[in-house]
Amino acid sequence: MFGKTIVCPKIQGRKLILKPFEKESLPLIAEWVNDQEISRYLASDNGYSLSQEEQWYEKTMTRPDNYKWGIFLGEKLIGNTSLMKIEPIHRNATYGILIGDKSAWGKGIGTEVAKAVSAYGFSRLNLNVIYGDAFVSNIGSIKALERAGFTSYGIRPAFHFIDNQYHDIWLGSLSRKG
Ligand SMILES: CC(C)(COP(=O)(O)OP(=O)(O)OC[C@H]1O[C@@H](n2cnc3c(N)ncnc32)[C@H](O)[C@@H]1OP(=O)(O)O)[C@@H](O)C(=O)NCCC(=O)NCCS
What we know:
Elements: E1 6-11, E2 14-19, H1 26-33, H2 36-39, H3 50-61, E3 67-73, E4 76-87, E5 92-99, H4 109-123, E6 129-135, H5 139-147, E7 151-162, E8 165-175
Parallel strand pairs: 5-6
Antiparallel strand pairs: 1-2, 2-3, 3-4, 4-5, 6-8, 7-8
Helix pairs in contact: 1-3, 4-5
Coenzyme A binds near residues 97 and 143.
């Protein structure tokens, strides 16, 4: 399902808003997830067709354990983000983000989105802990998570084999304050 709209601090004078996106955006999202540069740290071994993306959309939108948002800079959809595997009894969830528009990288958007989505998880979904993992080599992702307050509780060694190389995973978490 989609989470409620979240207005983030402006980025370089432009509005940064998290809100639902329409099905019409799926071709763009399929383009992103099939772009090697964008998806290399998403740990997916396969490519996705548009019809698979449509099935994913239908499935995700009906799942109560998954909140999703489109990331909009001004009016433009530049990525998506989610709280996944929401556990209402244990009160934890896993954070994820994909900024597909490469021109939007390195502007602080990943940091603001991680802050905003985790604040939503604590204040609206009453979570206690949010997990956020990243490839150790995904320096931008780790920096953004750390700036949003996540800290590492360990490394999962050699978890993914990609491009003839094993990759370690940085395991991060953020706990509710107070
Ligand atoms: C990873 C991602 C979310 C980061 O978002 P972002 O908006 O670029 O992040 P921010 O700008 O808030 O912070 C990233 C920081 O890391 C830095 N950085 C990024 N790549 C880097 C690299 N290879 N080496 C060193 N620093 C790097 C940026 O310059 C920035 O630091 P700065 O503000 O000091 O310049 C975004 O690039 C993305 O969605 N990538 C594709 C999908 C992906 O990898 N998702 C995450 C899966 S865990």
